[in-house]
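Quick sanity check, U6 snRNA-associated Sm-like protein LSm1:
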Amino acid sequence: MSWAGSADMYLCTSLANYLDKKVLLQLRDGRMLIGVLRSFDQFANAVLQGAYERIIVGNLYCDMRLGLYVVRGENILLTGELDLESEEVLPQHMTRVSEPEIKRAQKAEKEAAVLQRSIRKRFDFLDLE
């Protein structure tokens, strides 16, 4: 027995419009996946061909190749169509970097966020908000 109700059917029929088109999937964990949507099922699980993950940290970005990729439907937050023929145009201030560089930038960003949270905890008594 399927738990998919009538509201879920609208989601799947709308995904049919994106078949064989280049799409961007925003996932619940914040990741962005780009690839050609080749298949999906009634639970909105999606198969992307030629997929890559776009990682953006500040003004830096990197496209990490994933190949053929299956995404669980409940993790998809947003789906958008991209133009298959044209090259993606990013703002001019964005700089493409290698995978090791973006990993270092991600690590530094996470460490800065942890430090900021710990400082806020220490000064919680000030009621800064």
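Posting the structure with no commentary besides this: Residues 99-122 form the longest helix (24 residues).
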